Amino acid sequence: MKATIATLPGDGIGPEVLEVAINALQKVASKFGHEFSFNEALIGGIAIDQTGNPLPDETIRVCEQADAVLLAAVGGPKWSDPTAPVRPEQGLLKIRQHFGLFANLRPVKAYPALAQHTPLRPDLLENVDMLFVRELTGGIYFGPQQEQGDGDSAYDTELYTVPEVQRVADVAFRAAQGRRNKLTSVDKANVLASMRLWRRTVTKLHEDYADVELDHVLVDSCAMHLLTRPASFDVIVASNMFGDILSDEASVLAGSLGMLPSASIGAEKFGLYEPVHGSAPDIAGQGKANPIGMILSAAMLLRYSLGLEAEAAALEKAVDETLAEGARTADIAPRGGSYTSTTEFGENVINRL
Q1: Which of 195, 223, 254 marks a domain boundary?
Q2: Percentage of residues in the chain having pLDDT higher than 90
Q3: Beta bridge partners of 106
Q4: Is 113 a domain residue?
């Protein structure tokens, strides 16, 4: 297979972890007889500095000519003023909207070897393996908003339509069919009208997926259950804001935010793949960044955009085996002990491949 991948290093530790993922993909291509080409472009803070735009037109063009996009991280203290008219995060929102990437997939898996790095008892982490499906282009992040200058009032509007909920719920139901046939839909239907629409729509769509067990959970209850009985979850579908918050909460189950990948997909095979973590500018350039989330995002790219399941599974297995061998980046190493650098961890994964 020949494939073109747009690479967006972004800010902070982004270039470091992305380089590791690209090396891993090149090894996969060599091992399985594929040909991958990589085209780099700007996004985020560095794009603002160089062009004044967090998502330049040239970056959109590069992505439009690719089969998938691999994005590392955006943002940092330099651009952290929330009142600034141009911010790095605007690039993320714009690229999701431009390509119609309405569903964000965030798998969360607990690794037995890293149980000591989570605040939960080890027995609660047994068999934890869940998938968040977060609605990505609607809800309060995209609804009408207004701030009255420096006044005393402001509003953000939570707005959803039936088609928006249907399409992301459809992704979630199909994902559940490929896993353990259980779907949890998160809402706040006891308070919010938008969430009552959400619940009605998911319930109606369930008629087309009778083989999947569906339950509805209020967002506050879900937040509690994620820490008291996390193994009970299979697939979780949630609105943009609720999915954002809950999936970050669930990151503690994996031992570190640096462990988690994500995929943003739409109606076609094209997708954007990025680790859940941020740009971590405080450790940039020090070899301390955890590249696992970035590597596993590359595995998701292989699976969802290129249809290469065996290759994706091989890359994921290489990460599992590298952890089992004892390799630890700074965030998951014993406190005060030695750790494996970002590049060294990537080399270990490639060797396992």
Answers
A1: 254
A2: 86
A3: 132
A4: no
